[in-house]
Each structure stands twice: as C-alpha cells, then as structure tokens.
Amino acid sequence: MATFLQVAFDGLLNGLLYALVAAGLSLIWGVMDVINFAHGEFLMIAMYFSYWLGFIWKIDPIISSVAGGAFVFIVGALTYRLVIRRTIGKSAMSALLATFGLSMLIKNICLNRFSPNFRLLQDTLLGGKTFNLAGIIIPVPQLVIGLVALALLFVVYRLVKKTRLGWAIQATAMDKEAAELMGINTERIYLLVFGLGGACVGIAGGLLPSYLAVHPEVGALFSLIAFVCVAMGGFGSIPGALLASLLIGLVEAFAGFYIAPVFKYVAVFGLYLVVVMVRPRGLFGW
Amino acid sequence: MADPILEVQDIHCGYDGVPVIHGISLEVTPGELVAIVGANGAGKTTTMKTIAGLMHPFSGSIHFEGRDISRMKAHETIRLGVSYVPEGRRLFSKLTIQENLELGAFTKNDRREIGQSLEQVFELFPKLYDRRTQVAETMSGGEQQMVAIARGLMSSPRLLLLDELSLGLMPSLVEKVMEAVISINRTGVTVLLVEQMVQEALEIADRGYVIQTGKIVQQGTARELLDSPEVRKAYMGM
After folding, report:
1. Which tens digit of pLDDT belongs to each residue from A253-280?
2. Cβ of B90 and A168 within 8 Å?
3. Chain centroid offset of residue B181 CA
4. pLDDT of residue A235
5. How far is residue B131's CA from residue B208's CA, in Å, rounded to a whole number?
6. HSE (side-chain half, CA atoms, 13 Å) at B181
7. Which domains are present in chain B?
8. Are B84 and A171 in contact (CB < 8 Å)?
9. Mean confidence (pLDDT) of chain B
10. What integer pLDDT is reported at residue B137 of this predicted model?
11. Cβ contacts (< 8 Å) between A185 and chain B: which residues?
C-alpha cells in the first residue's frame, strides 16, 4: 500500500509539472488557434537560462525561475511579433510549420553553443532534499514545482475567467472582429497571450534544473506530452489540461512501476488514443 | 445646417482588391437618424465596416467630427465615439450578458462610469437586467439583438452604426427594436442604420440613402423616399 501511494504521489507531482507546460500551450491554442511547436523549446530555453545563472553566478533556480518566466515571456512575445503575426489569417499549416522551424532553430542553436551534454546544477537550495510523510518519501524540488504549478494555474484561470482583461482575451478568442469593435486591441491581446503561454513554461523551466538535467533535446518529450494533455483535456480548456495532465502523470507512474519503465509511454499514448476515440473533443472540449 | 458629424467622401472599397463599393458619399448631421437601405449584397455592410474601421477604403475619405478616420482601426474609432453594432449580432456567445456589456465599455476605465452606462442600458432594456447572468448563446434572437444594441451603447458613443437589426427577427420584434432605436436617437445619439427592410427603416428615419450595387442611386428625406415610385416598386413590392 505504501508503495502504491508513493507511486501515485510521484505521478501526481509529475502531472502538475505537465499541467503547467500544457496550460501555456492550451492558452495559446484556445485564443489563437495556433499550435506552438516550439513550446518545448521555450521550456528548454528557460532551463538553460536558469542553469547558466546558477552555474555562473550561483543564483538558485527558485530565483531564476521568476527571471526565467519574465525571459520566456519576452521570447514568446518576440516570437509572436516576428513569426506568428505573419501567419495569422493564412492557412493553419503555416503557423504550424513556422513554429516547427523555430523549434529546430532553437534546438540547433543550443546544440551548437552548449553541446549535447547533460548538465545538472549542483548544490541548489532544493536539490536532493526529501522528507518523509507517513511513509511516503516526498522529493522537495518536485513538490515545490507541483505547488508552483497549481498556484500559477489558479492565477491564469482566474485571470481569464474573472478579470476584464480575461474577458477581453476570451472575446478575442470567440470573435476577433467583434472584439476589435469593443475597442480591444487584438494584436496586443495575441502578444500578451503568447507571452503568458511562454511565461508558464518559463517558470516551470526555471525551476527544473534543481533535479532535471538540461540538454538540447529536453523540450521534445515535454512538448509531446503537453500536446497530449491539451488534446485530451479539450483544446483551450485549462481545467481540462490539468485533469488530463494528472491522469497522464498517474498512468505514466503506474505503468512505469508496475509493468516496466520502457512501457510507460505506451500506456500514456494508449490512454490518449482511447480518450480521443471515445471523446474526440477531449474531456472538457467544447 | 450644422457641421456633419460623419462625412463620407467618394469611398471605393472591397475585399482582396475586388471593389464592392464604387464611390459612395454621404453625410450625417448631429442628432439625425439616417438609414441606408438597399437589397442584399448592395454594399451596405461593407460601407458600415469601412466607416467603423474594420476595413479601409482604397480611395476616398471618411471624417468623423472633422477628423480623418479612413485609416483608423476599429479599436481606435470606438475611442473617438463611433460604435458599430455588426450584422448578425456577434455576441461573445460563451460569456454572460453582463460580461458582454462590460466588454462594450472596454474603452472606459472608471468603474463608476461603467456602472452608469449599465444603468442606462438596463433602463432602455429592462429585460436584460433580469437576464444579466445568463450566457449569451442561450438567449433568443430578439433578446440577443437587444444585448448587441446595449453593448454598442456601453461606450457612450456619439455615432451609433446599426447593421441589419431586423435580420432573423419576427415582424413584431422588428417593430420593438425599431422603437428602441428611436428612443436611443432621442437621447441625443446620432444613428446611422443599414436595413434590408426598407419600409420599416424609412418609417423611423429622418433621411435615407438608397444603395444599389455599390453606388448611391437615390437620397432624400425619409418621406420623399417612402413616396418615391422607384423605391416603392423596387423594395416594397408596390
């Protein structure tokens, strides 16, 4: 029983991290109908950002994560300005290919500059710390990321649902032209949404180097899982993405532990297939 | 006559370089209720979109209160006092009535001012007050049209552009909506409306323009147009 709870808890913590990555993706998709293929690379950029801050100036990832969020907000906003804006109103394929190209570019720049080596920050405030709660061993870095993820998801959700700015974001998503007629500068909303989506992964990525090694390919798996979470939760729905992410975290942990570690992604993507077959619009889809 | 609040001079406009409007000029003076009437596809909505700033003319100019707004975007013209209630209502379907209305006042930052606007539109459409927490898409066509007009008023515009209010409404509701337009106009808001239902529109308007394949073919006081044999024959089946 203790083992079962342990595995479940690990799965849930991982799920929360996925949820934060997926939330950014979901927000961008929901408002702009753009699938950001470079989302995983945004995470990777934040991880390198935090790693180098820690390596050179001994800044702890806890602090770097805030800076990482701001940094990737800017990266996201620039991506919108320089790349995405040119694809708006054209076929959905063009945004997809543009962000795919961008992801290759970022990955290869990092490969070229930082080599394919795995890098892990030593001696961080949280790194390696655990505590025991009624027989379950809780890793502190993962717990902190999970709590941060939960808090951020709540903030983003409140922002979208309960504030005037959030209504403006929703209005832009529902009917861009009508939103313009209300005096909403939809260009600026798009910029903001892309930045916010980036900031979500930026904060997650900033915290990660305290327990996960950075390398140029690290974003790929995260973005794949985030896509699955978003599609399974229902495109554009943040609660849906959260639920799907937790589910995926659990399935991944259980399959990895009780069947075989190599089997965990088979289970994850198998679950995804079943969900989209039964409910093509996802768990919370419109 | 007073200076026009809106002056459209010889605009040519269209989609993807294909012209739809071939030189339209019109004028609206403060306080007036002016109707643009004509058949489906004549270019009425294109004219309205161009005035509001959703499209820009290839040539010609649009002045609002003496200011050239031909190149301004829609989110800028509303800040000057031009509010456009688009064809087909275009409510934010998943949001509540109240949220829709508050978005109509997006250009205002003062909570008290927004509250006042809300009070005014609830006074005009008391039914909306009871329904304010209801999601827009669950309302009937007539109610949605009321919300669309109310939303257009929330920014306290000086010029209200109303596009095909009658679309998809049954005749008794059309009459109600037209009455609402008259009372809005009486509060001092200048109204320019576009209608396929020529008779209904001209009955409430001060003046009118008849538009056909992107050109104005006739203009005058509403009375003159209602009495004109051409208009009666072409649009009223008489």
Report:
1. 999 999 888 888 999 999 989 988 888 8
2. no
3. 10
4. 79
5. 35
6. 34
7. 1-81+160-238 (3.40.50.300), 88-156 (no CATH)
8. no
9. 93
10. 92
11. 75
Domains of chain A by start residue, with CATH: 2-278 (1.10.3470)
> Which of A181, A187, A286 has the highest number of chain B CBs within 10 A, making it the mutation to test binding with B?
A181
Section B108-132 average pLDDT: 94
Output b/e per residue, B109-129; b: 16+ Cβ within 10 A. Answer: eeeeebeebbeebbebbeebe
Q: How far apart are CA B65 and CA B82, in angstroms?
A: 10
Q: How many CB pairs below 8 Å do chains A and B form together?
A: 65
- Model pTM score: 0.89
Amino acid at position A97, single letter: L
The per-residue pLDDT for A80 is 94
Taking CA atoms, A65 is separated from A33, A58, B100, B117, in Å, by 28, 13, 36, 43
Average pLDDT, chain A: 90
